[in-house]
Amino acid sequence: MATINNQDNNNNRQINNVASSKQPLQTVKSVDTQSVLKRLQSELMSLMMSGDPGISAFPEEDNIFCWKGTITGSKDTVFEGTEYKLSLSFPTDYPFKPPKVKFETGCFHPNVDIYGTICLDILQDKWSSAYDVRTILISIQSLLGEPNTSSPLNAQAAALWENQEDYRKMVEKLYKPAA
Amino acid sequence: MTVDATSAVCNLGLLDSLSQHPGSVTEISHAWNAFCISTESVVSNCTSTNPDPSNFVSQVRILRNHGLQSLLQHHFLTTIQELFEKNSVSKFWQHFDAYTNVIDTDLIHEDEVQQVLHTALEEITLEKQNQERCLAMLTHALQFGKETTSEGSQKSDTDRVYLSSKYQLIVSSTLMTTLPRHFPQILHWYFKGRLEELNTSLDGEYQGLDRSQDEEDMDLDNKNKFLHEKSDTGSDKSYQGKSLENSKLVKNIGKVVHDLRSLGFTSLAEDAYASAIFMLLKAKVNEFAGDDYRSSVLDAIKGWIQAVPLQFLHALLAYLGDTLSNGRHSSILKSPLASHSNSLYPGSDAPSEGIVRWQLRLEYFAYETLQDLRIAKLFEIIVDYPDSSAAIEDLKQCLEYTGQHSKLVDSFISALRYRLLTAVGEPIREYLRGRKDTIKCIVTMLTDGTSGPGSVGDSLLEEINRDEENLDGAGLDDEISTDDKQAWIDAERWEPDPVEADPLKSSRSRRKIDILGMIVSIIGSKDQLVNEYRVMLAEKLLNKTDYDIDSEIRTLELLKIHFGESSMQKCEIMLNDLIDSKRTNTNVKATIKQKMQSGIDSRETDVPMDVFDATIISSNFWPPIQEEALNIPGTVDNLLTDYATRFNEIKTPRKLLWKKNLGTVKLELQFEDRELQFTVTPIHASIIMQFQEQTSWTSKDLAAAIGVPVDVLNRRVSFWISKGILAESFGTDSSDHVFTLVDGMIDNGKTGISSGNCEELAADEDGDRSVASVEDQLRKEMTVYEKFITGMLTNFGSMALDRIHNTLKMFCIADPTYDKSLQQLQSFLSGLVAEEKLELRDGMYLLKK
C-alpha cells in the first residue's frame, strides 16, 4: 500500500474590505450625478449579462438617463408574439426616485392608457432603490399577462379581459409593431 | 701611416711612434688647432668660396699622416651636424609652424601648403648641397697626394662613401628626431592636392578619349583650362604634347619626393602619396559606382586606374629614376620603390616591377571598395533585378578577386534581419496582427531569454537589453565606466559611416532600432503586449516554489523603460506581492515556532507547517484567476485553516481566501519496492491522496470525493495513468471508469520507466493554467460586447457601424472596457453576421430574426 507524503504550496487571495456603500435615504437630494451614472452603468451591465428572455433596454446614444426598452409578450398569454417598445426616463436622484416608464408602442392593456402610461405600484408608491431596470422590465412583462383589472386605466380592456379569445383578437387587431 | 683608424692595435702603434718622436706632438697639436679653426670657417662659409683651401688641405694632410684621420673626420662631421641642427633644421620646421594645430582639412589652403613645402624643401636642400660640398672638400683634402696609387684611389672612394653615408645619417636622424607631429599630415595634404589637380587634367583626357562626341566640348573646356593653368605657371611648351613625363606638375611632385628622400623621409613620402592615391581611388570608385546598378563599372574603374594613378606613378618613378642615375649621392637611401624604378626607362612601354606591383595593389583596393559598396546595397540590387544584373556581375568579379564571400553573407543576413524587423511590409504586419499567437510568441521571447531556437543573440530580451546598454553607453561616453575589455570590443566593432550617410545624424542614433517600438506598431497597442505579459508573469509567479523573482524584476525594469512605469504598474504590484508573501510567510511561521517553544504545539496535523509556503496576492491587480472548486485532503485543509488563522492574527482585519486549485505540490509516493517523487498541481495531489485509503475508485466517486466534475477528473487522472501509478478499467457502467492503484512491480513496462527517483513536472498541460489566457479574456470580452450589441439592436432596430462603435464606447466602460478599433469591431460584427446572429443590410446591422 502506498503512503503519500505531501507538501503543499497553495495560493490564496486576501480579502479587500469593501467600504460599505449604505447610504441614508435622507440624503436623496444631494446625490451627485456621478454615482447615478455609475449606478445606471452597472445596471446596464447586469441587464446585458443577465440575458433574461423577452426583456431588453439600452440607453439612447448620448444620454444614459434616457433608455429604450423592449418587452415581448410571454408565451401562453394573449400577448404572445407581440413586441412592445418602452421609454425609460431616469430622474437625477435615481434610484431614490423611480424612473418614468411609458409604452411607446400602443398596448391594449387594462393598466396602460392610450398615451402609454403604465399603472404599476412599483413605479409609484411602492418604489424602492432595490429595484432596477431589470426588475422593472420583468414586472411590466408579467403585468401584461396578469393585469390588475380592479383599478384599470383602460376600462374597455379590463372589461374584455374575461374573454381571452376576444382579447387576443383585439390585441392582434390593434398591434402595430415598431418599424 | 695609412692605417685603419678604427683599429686599436694601430692606435697603440701610433702612441709608440709619438713617444719616439716628441717633436711630432707639437706638430700635431698645432695642426689640430689650425684644423679646428679652418673647419669652423669652411663649414660656416661653405656657401662662398673657400677662403684658404690650401691651408685646410695641408692641415688635414699633417693630421692624416699622424694617423688622426678618423678623429678629424669625426670632428668635421660633428661641426657640420651642430650647424645643421642650429640653422637648417629649426628653420625648416618653422615653415610649417602655421599648421601645428590645424585639424580641419577644409581650412587648409592647398596652394599655400604646396608653396610652403616647396620653399622649405628648396631651402634645406640648398643648405644640404652646400654642406655636401664641404664634405667633398674634406674628401678632396684627404685624397690629396695619394691619387697616384691605385690603392689610394680606392681608399679615397671608401672615404667618400663613408663620409657621405655618415652625413646622410646625420641629416635624416636630426630631422627625424625633431619631426613635428603634423608633418605627415602636411605631406598628405600636399599629395592629395597635387593628385586631385592631376586627376582633373588626366581624367579630362581619359574621358575625352573614352566618351562620345557630344561630351567633347566640355572635355575640351577642361583641357583648355588645364593648359591655361599650366602656361600660367610658366610651363614649357613641350607639355602641349601631353607627354606626362614632362609635365611640370609631375616634375614638381617628383622633385618634392626626391627632396624628401634625400632628407631621409623616404617612407614618409611614400606613405603620403600612397594614401592620397588610395583616397582618390576610393572617391573615384564611389563616384563611378554610385547607386546605379544598371551598368558595369568595373572596367571604367580599371580604365581610370590605368589612366590616372598608374600614369602618375609611372611618371613619378621615371622622374626619380632619372635623378637617381644623375645624382648618385642619394643612392644609399633608395627605397624599394626607387630600386625598381632603376629598371624603368623613360618612354619605354615595358612596365617595371614597381608599376606592376602598384597596379595589383590599386586594383585589389578598387575591387574591395566596389565589393563593399555593392554588398552594402545588395538588398536594393536584388530588388532591382534583373535591371541590376550588371552590378551583380561586377560583384561576382570582385569576390573572385578578393575572396571575401563571408563578408557578403554576413552583411546580407543582417540586411535581411534589419529589413524584416524595421520595414515590415503591410501584408506581413497584417498577417502578424491576424495571428492569435503573435503577441504570445513575442512575450514568450521577452520573458524567456533563452527561448529562441537560435543563438542567444536572437532573444528579444537580449536585444532590448543591448539597446539599453547602448543607451547607457551613450550617456557615459567619455567616462571610464565601461571596462577596458568592453571598450576594446566597442572599438573593434566600430565602423566608419558610409559615404552617403547624413553627417548630421550620429551613426548610433541612426542605427538604433527600437525593436519594441516596432513590435508595438505591428500589434497596434502596447496595452495588448503588456496584458499578455501580465498573464505570463502571473502564470510564472504562481508556479514558483521559491520566492526568487530576480530575473522577473530585471525584465520588468527593462519593460518599464520602454513602456513607461504606469503601464507596468500592475506587474510591479504582482512582483511586490511575491516579495511581501515571502516576508509574511516567514512571519506566520515564526508564530508557530513561538508556540512550539511555549509547548502549546498540538500535533493534530501530520503535515508540518514548515513545508508549506503561501503566496498572497492582491487579486485586483492580477489577471483573472482560474477558479476551480476542489476538495483537498483534510490534513492539508486543516493546515490551510491554521495558516489563515495565524495570518489573520498578524494582519487583522485581513483574511486569507484560498485558491486551493493553484500552486504546486511536491510529493513522494512510497511503495513497498520504490519511492517516486513528483511535482504536481494540487488537484493531481488530491487525486493520488485518495488512493492512500482506498486503492480503487470509480470515476464518479472519485470526482465526488475531490469535488470536481467527472470530465475534469478524467482529464487530470490521466497524468497518473501515464506515469503508471494508476490503472484504468471500465466499470459496470460504460460511462464510469475504475481507477486502481498499481502496486509493486506487477505492472507493465510503464512502471519500469518511472521506477527509481524521478521528478516530473506535470505543468504545461493546457488545462493546467492558473491564469485565464489572453484569448480567454478576449473571448470573454467579446461575449460582453456581443450582449451589448444585441441589447442595443433589440431596442434601436438597426444601427450603422460607427453608431455601434460610439455606443459601445459610451456605455461599455466597466470591466471589460471597450477598447477596440472600428476595424476590430467591424471584423467582429462580420463574425456575428457569419454566425447568422446579425444581418447587414445597406450598411446597417440588425438582429437576425
UniProtKB/TrEMBL annotation, chain A:
Keywords: ATP-binding, Nucleotide-binding, Transferase, Ubl conjugation pathway. It holds the Pfam family UQ_con. Residues 35-179 form the UBC core domain. The active site is at 119 (glycyl thioester intermediate). Residues 1-17 have a biased composition (Low complexity). GO terms for molecular function: ATP binding; ubiquitin conjugating enzyme activity. It comes from the Eukaryota. This is E2 ubiquitin-conjugating enzyme.
UniProtKB/TrEMBL annotation, chain B:
PROSITE patterns: CULLIN_2 (PS50069). One of its GO terms (molecular function) is ubiquitin protein ligase binding. This is Anaphase-promoting complex subunit 2. Residues 518-721 form the Cullin family profile domain. Keywords: Cell cycle, Cell division, Mitosis, Ubl conjugation pathway. One of its GO terms (biological process) is ubiquitin-dependent protein catabolic process. SMART domains: APC2, CULLIN. It holds the Pfam family TPR_ANAPC2.
